[in-house]
Design goal:
- Two copies of one chain form a homodimer.
- Chain A is of the alpha/beta class.
- Chain A folds into two domains: about 100 residues, Urease, subunit C, domain 1 (Roll), CATH 2.30.40.10; about 280 residues, Metal-dependent hydrolases (TIM Barrel, Alpha-Beta Barrel), CATH 3.20.20.140.
- In chain A, about 35% of the residues lie in helices and about 20% in strands.
- In chain A, strands 1, 2, 3, 4, 5, 15 and 16 form a seven-stranded mixed β-sheet that branches. The first copy, chain A, has a seven-stranded parallel β-sheet with strand order 8-9-10-11-12-13-14. A two-stranded parallel sheet of chain A has the order 6-7.
- The radius of gyration of chain A is 21 Å and the shape is globular.
- The model of chain A has no long low-confidence stretch (mean pLDDT about 95).
- The interface between A and B is large, with 39 and 39 residues.
Chain lengths: ~400, ~400
Amino acid sequence: MSPITSTVVTGIGELVTNDPSAGEGPLGIVNDAALVVDDGTVAWVGPATDAPAADRRVDVEGRAVLPGFVDSHSHLVFAGERSAEFEARMSGVPYDGGGIASTVRATRDADDDTLRRRVKALLAEMRAQGTTTVEIKSGYGLTVDDEARALRIAREFTQETTFLGAHVVPPEYSGRVDEYVELVTGPMLQACSPHARWIDVFCEPGSPHAFDGDASRAVLQAGQEAGLELRVHGNQLSYGPGVLLAVEHGAASVDHCTFLDDEDVAALVGSSTVATLLPGVEFSTRQPYPDARRLIDAGVTVALATDCNPGTCFTSSMPICTALAVREMRMTPVEAVWAATEGAAKSLRRKDIGHLRVGARADLAVLEAPSYRHLAYRPGVPLTRTLEIPS
Amino acid sequence: MSPITSTVVTGIGELVTNDPSAGEGPLGIVNDAALVVDDGTVAWVGPATDAPAADRRVDVEGRAVLPGFVDSHSHLVFAGERSAEFEARMSGVPYDGGGIASTVRATRDADDDTLRRRVKALLAEMRAQGTTTVEIKSGYGLTVDDEARALRIAREFTQETTFLGAHVVPPEYSGRVDEYVELVTGPMLQACSPHARWIDVFCEPGSPHAFDGDASRAVLQAGQEAGLELRVHGNQLSYGPGVLLAVEHGAASVDHCTFLDDEDVAALVGSSTVATLLPGVEFSTRQPYPDARRLIDAGVTVALATDCNPGTCFTSSMPICTALAVREMRMTPVEAVWAATEGAAKSLRRKDIGHLRVGARADLAVLEAPSYRHLAYRPGVPLTRTLEIPS
């Protein structure tokens, strides 16, 4: 039982609070700021000249401080890698879509410690880049035991675990999607739900590997009945029912959102469903980027995440995702930073992260730069790290 | 006088030598390799099982090792920053081109130590990302004294210094380009040539801020007569005479090369002039990318560099430039790695860097990954560092 001590972070050249009442603009920016952390929680925020005393002092010497990034979409429990497939795809060699099956094989064959070490290494890599909350999906096991194992391992590291048995139809169920959905919504759900907060489904009717509207609805309803909250992979590769299903079921997030018609956008407006965009995927696959401007201009809440996975996007970098959001999706730097912090927190229905209001978790990212603008201004430069507050 | 000692680097999962006779493919890849460094020079390369003994041993535990990146185009001697201008440009606010003048003002106003600290910090940032050779241009002083000062400071850090008095026409010479060219080719060249290896000119006849064909020719000829070697900024914003001038004068490199006609490509083929592409600029300005495939397929030698500067591209990351080259310019991962190492070394007419043949400088980059492919496969992730060999 160590005594609770407080720390004042001083010398903050620019503090992004995401609290418009605390500072300038939508990011609630306070210049020449200080912040007091008490027992892991933000206890005070304001101009450095008004900062109260604290037991300890950390001086960041003029750097910018942001809420830690919230990566609300990742697939970290897997074995193997697919850089040769990536190289072939980028070099124009036709790709037959067989890649994900190789990750499923490697994941099933790996022992727990191998999977655990990979998750741990990727989370450390994320934390070193300023990410302080990570959602982790299953989805490379696709048997009752392998999905439950993936979630048990993920749960060792985060509360934000997502059961994604309905990621793809595994090869052994090829042509028998209905039987696989029965497995997912029956024994697999039963084995997985104790280890998961969320359930997710890859709704993509045009793909033989994914799930159509009816199958997706069955997965979401079964998950809801088992007490899980909902997320959807929707409208990534073509127009389809993913967004409407997500909104209809009150899902917290629908992710990808590349192919949207007017009805989809209208449904998202005013709903409690966040549109999570994953521009690293489009960067790594040369697919078209989602139309972020259309969503934001319509009033939809937008989040950014990495989708870190060995196939379609193996970046763990929230900074490059914000840079891509600015360059390729024409989000402003302000919108991109908000979407990667508070927007992503909303997609996880979390009120304690993604901002630095009093009472928030003291998850802090510090930039080797004077302003949040440098995230997009200096693409690829490792500027961001998590500010570790001694406790 | 410390005794010369040798170091064997072992556990190299994949070694990129750029020596096709030493290993597989154009990158000369040796798997499960070792490399001996003797007095700062590569003394032996081969399979780990054949490695000779050495005084010391560094185990990289399966990681990939590459020749250190060669960043052959940078503008590091400046003061101030322009992230607000970047944010405005990305947000669609019309930009009046006045930005560079603000960097010139800030640079002239800064004292030597301010400029020196900035160069040192950016070089440390580059080295931390695996870059071991950096070319540095002047071009934000634009007076005799300020250009000479920039080159003196650059020379403290690199032999690859480039006199770029003909970067832009400074405001005080607006409408008097001929007079400014007389200054550049006269007193400014005389003051700068002792501190520079190279002379460079921004040849862009359509821009009121840059130099047309005749002015560019005058700058290159005067530089050559003063004993400097030649580089050219050419064909960045429109078709023009830059490439042909570069080839005609035997320049080592013509940089940017976005707008090329068939005659330009034909002139580069078989010439001693390298085409240096700078995809970070197009990423940060939303300009069209150069057609790397057309150049490579025609047989032109292509290099990649950052163009690190506070206006059009403030990345210092050679890894993100290789990822952009693959994603946006359709270079293969092999071509991109070669262009960022040996290609860039050729653009500096250096035979001792950019590869790991016996006799090369022991400039080594190590990846937190098993293969060079991860540079493009994992965009934005800080995988690369310089491997420091104790001496």
